[in-house]
Amino acid sequence: MRLWIKDPIAILAEGAERGVVVEDGVIVELIGSGKQPMLPVDQTYDASRHVIIPGLINTHHHFFQTLTRAHPDAINKELFPWLNALYSIWARHVTPETFRLGSRLAMTELMMSGCTTASDHHYLFPMGLEQAMDIQAEEAERVGIRMTLNRGSMNLSQKDGGLPPDSVVQDEDTILADCERVLTKYHDTSKGSKLQVALAPCAPFTVTKRLMRESVTLAEKYDCRLHTHLGETIDEDDYCLEKFNCRPVDYLEECGWLNERVWLAHGIHFNDDEVKRLGHACVGVCHCPTSNMVLASGQCRTKELEAAGSPVGLGVDGSASNDNSNLIEGVRHALMINRLTYDAASVTHFDAFRWATEGSARCLGRSDIGAIKVGMMADMAFYSLEELRFSGAGDPLAALVLCGAHSADRVMIGGAWTVEDRLPVGMDVAKLRYEHGAVAKRFLESL
């Protein structure tokens, strides 16, 4: 089946003014101004109501946190007090049932915003949740989204001087055995794969050095990516100096993590030398603008990191520090906070789009998604400009960011429609909202 997506209002691609042709889930032709498809098409989709961009790619999230949005115990706090307020709540109430619904809702919410690939950093493993990665793999297939499963981990708890409760961590051998199981079962490196796996120790203050190093060994064996939090707050810098007698990037290097397999969440508090070292090693950074502002963590040095050689991607971060899973909203926030960090002329909407597409794809180690080009997977987000917020907008692509697009009208993943008329295909949103809301009430029981 050859499908011509025809005559969009605007499209974020060069030489595709009249749209694109999709065949077998892949973009096979860009149709320039005044041109027709080179070969006959079987079907045409009239895109004259739509602005089309590559599907957005979310490179950092914590799906289960949709269950504790705007939690009264955690609002108006910075990272460490925020974590201390929520860890005990998560420990008591994150079960296979609540985790499944939290993941399903987060994926659905992301996809409705125009996201086609998600990466979730799951590091919480209370007793009974040992199959967390299997649950997320099932839910990704159900929702229809492309996904990188992050087999996260924590093995330093409060008894070891760490932050998390003892009940949510696992021992090193259990973690490493399950990492290998998940990699063997789900990691697919072929073009267009719907599931890949990354190994993701939570952060320097929640894992041992051995676990960091053994994760590198497994990543090399299975050709997968590595992910962790780093440089998010000044408190983290102070912790590393106290515990390891070095700064976080130095610790990362000691653990063998300064390499092109790695992408980091947040990456805010790096000095000039650290930015240079990270760029030289091609370590990616996921910029989380909304979460960084909510928790007052700081401002990511996106331009310096990119200039040094680091891929910069975009993430919504956990839905308890965002407090939603809307990536097109995150694109707008990225533009705004970076203009405040730098200036209006040198940070454009194209920069924000690049971080959320090509930059994010590089962070995940994928060359088959992130752009509307021949040979790439047909992952695209379609937005209409019919809401009041867009009336009077002169530049359609800029309008998506500056006027605040909130939801995609249609989404295509691998050539298949997964969102139509702003609703996910095959998903009862009202039922999902009811079921998720019902289990989320358990997380307020301590109030």
From TrEMBL:
Entries under SUPFAM superfamilies matching the protein: Composite domain of metallo-dependent hydrolases, Metallo-dependent hydrolases
Molecular function terms from GO: 8-oxoguanine deaminase activity; deaminase activity; metal ion binding
Domain spans labelled Amidohydrolase-related: 51-415
EC annotation from Swiss-Prot or TrEMBL: 3.5.4.32
Keywords: Hydrolase, Metal-binding, Zinc
Family: Belongs to the metallo-dependent hydrolases superfamily. ATZ/TRZ family.
Name the record gives this protein: 8-oxoguanine deaminase
